[in-house]
Amino acid sequence: MSEIPKIGWSDFARGRCRPGQGRSFFRGGDEELVNLLGEHWAKRRPGAGREDLDKVVLVPCPPEHFACATVLVGRRTKLSARLENRQAGEDAHIRVTASGKPEPAQFADVVLYSAATLEENDGTRSGDFDWEIIAIVAAPVENEPMNPLTMARNYLEKPGGTYCEYTAREFAEAVYYWSRRAGLEPED
């Protein structure tokens, strides 16, 4: 069994992965999530577009502890679009969200970046952790494709992106998957 590293929340994820933000989140407390990650650490796998466990990993967790924030879009779904930045210093982008009932979480992964990865491209760490929680992916399908905009940000090494190569097929699958879904409208 792998030794369990010191894990903590990134400031980036802490503000985004909570109820009302229109993003997937964990239903319990911080310590509970860190303990859950420790329990499932040996099951981690490389993040999208990665081949090893050195920089970005996905730790699978039982989905009943997580809330999904995607809405399957239909003809009557109310969509909203707004220009936003994920955080200061990043390029603005159009975010499309949907009002409606989020899909149930059938699968859940927690995305973690290593300390060295966080420091690339003049990046910063949020604490004295070996690995930081960057995102929560609670999804209706196993291995949900990454949002194509996130993939582009990474591939093009834009501010806030962590370089990674993706295949044309990975991009195409992500575009197709997200063409039928939107993130849940955040609460104001």
Core attributes:
alpha+beta; 188 residues; YaeB-like fold; single chain; 5 helices; 4-stranded mixed sheet
What do these coordinates show?
- By secondary structure, the chain is of the alpha+beta class.
- It has a single domain, classed as YaeB-like fold (2-Layer Sandwich), CATH 3.30.2310.50.
- It is built from 5 helices and 11 strands, in the order βαβαβββββββαβααβ.
- The chain has a 5-stranded mixed sheet with strand order 1-10-9-4-3. It has a 4-stranded mixed sheet with strand order 6-11-8-7, with no helix packed on it. It has a two-stranded antiparallel ribbon with strand order 2-5.
- A hairpin with an 8-residue loop joins strand 7 and strand 8.
Instruction: Kindly estimate the percentage of residues that lie in beta strands according to DSSP.
Output: 25-35%
* Tally of helical runs: 5
Using the 3D structure, state the CATH architecture.
Answer: 2-Layer Sandwich
Helix content: 10-25%
Query: What characteristic shape results from the CA principal axes?
Result: globular
